[in-house]
Amino acid sequence: MSAHHHPPQPMNQKLITPGVLVLLILTGIGVCFAIWRFIFGIGSITNLDNQHPWGIWIAIDVATGVALAAGGFTTAALAHIFHREHYHAVVRPALLTAMLGYTFVGLGLMIDLGRFYNIWHPIVPAMWSGHSVLFEVGLCVMCYLTVLYIEFLPIVCERLEKEERWPRVRVFCMKLNGLVGRIMFFFIIAGVVLSCLHQSSLGNLMVLAPSKMHDLWDTPILSLLFLLSAFAVGFPMVIVESMVASRSFKLKPEMHILSPLAKFVPVLLGIYLGFKVGDLAVRDKLSLIGEGSPQATMFVVEMVFGVIAPFIMLLFARVRKSPTGLFIAALMIVLGVALNRINVFLVAFQPLYPQKTYFPSIGEVAVTVGLISLLIFCYRVIVNYFPVISHPGQARAT
Amino acid sequence: MGLSRRGFFHTLGVVGGGTLASATCARASSAGPQRDHSNDMGVLVDVTKCIGCRRCEYACQEAAGFDPPDIESFEDKSVFDEQRRPVARSHTVINRYSRPDGSGPVYNKFNCLHCLDPACASACLVSAFTKNDTGPVVYDPSRCMGCRYCMVACPFEIPTYDYDYPLTPQVRKCNLCAHRVPSEQELPACVKICPAEVMTYGRRGDLLELAHERIANNPDVYIDHIYGEHEAGGTSWMWISNVPFEEIGFHKVDSKAPPRRTEAIQHGVFKNFLPPLMWYGLLGAAMWLTRPEKNDESKEGDQHAEVQS
Predict the structure, then answer these.
(1) Residue B151 is nearest to which of A53, A82, A122, comparing CB atoms?
(2) Does this complex have an ipTM over 0.85?
(3) Pair (B102, B176) in one structural domain
């Protein structure tokens, strides 16, 4: 199979480009605001108040971050559990995205948590609270992050095995790689199970606040909808990333893998769409779509541009085979799921005693943009020096 | 795959044992069926008696250790021009409401209702909120991570936050003076200072009886509704009023406690840890059954397959 002829290799290209400089500047600005937060408190740079305890740091950095890292477990399931060998080439980039994504979820939380130094408390049995939805999310995310680091070990080992300057490190990495390879199946399945658990529970979080949630999103099956949308967004995220990476490294998009991968998307997206519409119908809330409120508008945007349009587009082989068409459809799904998370955590959340409406402050936006920039920069550094991307056109570059 | 069938199932077994062990712990810490709360200490507020003197606000700030300004400054009535909410430095506030028919103002008191089945406690992932055996819902800052999910979850929007503290912010709310009323003889600060005897401190069962009695004896004064008897599964603080509660700043709240919604789902998904384990087993079986037959010998596990080819 074509993918197998091209083992993953470091990209070995020039690291600092104009684009990378922009990323670093944005990161720097975010870091300044983050430092400000640690000196003067969350209130000094955010628009959060007693009525709006959660802002974009939760809705984007955490909830959207987790959702868009779904490529990691969906591709792992496809290639490793269902053994669709053809897709091996996308597993490592997706794994890297998930690993970085969850690491940055943790980083984002450290900035948002008032007592960030207590972030380890959920692992202390004396503080366990099995009835807390957030406890389940927190523990699953911690376990999954550990699993992701273990799944990433072979990539680090492969790189260091080739490091001739450190013979002892080479031997150690060879042994470690062999050991990890033999038990990897355990972590791969665990990763998928843990992902399913916390992707869904993330939706259950807001089920606890029925009196504050707009009826369009206030459903007891919110956790199921979160899980189904995570399934649906995994491959589109992998497609978007792969195409952006190819472009950035001046390689051809890997359409021979991405087009067939896109075939799964309408199925997964269709199931999500069915449940989403069915849920509204069963709860008899379909009429709310036309109520003309900001919430209804955001719901329509989320559904039409984020779900229905790309669903129809990807039904056509012509779109799936066109790099531009595929990229646009996949990007719409990614943005649609991101908008869904923002809608659930911010737009649908209506305080009982609002004193003002919430809109993110410059500081909040700067920190979020900074985190995303740093994530992309880390991605670039790692694919540059570690064997993550396998690409037929890569031989030229190395 | 370089792995033998026996090794595969052995590992599965080890995982299973571990998860079952943690399942037992998870069950032990879950809230479970609600206990009888009629002996919990609570407060009955009769809003028809409140004169809006705001002395309770003063006493509350003092009891919470916030060094309030002189008690005279609380006589300032201009604060009634807007609807206030409890804030980090004042855990109770009095608001004024005018009646549609123009007859005198009505004052209402806002503070933590101390739910019988508190959403904040169900939300908290490190058990920083607990419902005491005697009634108060109390907060332990040493456990708190500062995630503010309790504030998201509260059906009455009560908890507030020290947004300006960079390192040691706390969630702030009324604790029914649990820190200074260890014995049932002492009164919570607001109840003690009230000159109009608006509040009655006592066992919830007795308070309910008293409330029903007062409503039955004065049907032309009170509306037939005890706010807090059933709201959000019932609360330790309860209100009786001569005007509908929606007109004095209270929202209609479902009688089902919010945690019953999420915990039913969560405990269903984790029932004895069987569903996650079965999911693990199913995926494991799928992995085993769909393994590529021919390449079995040449490949050493999935990760190596990529490298060798």
Answers:
(1) A53
(2) yes
(3) yes
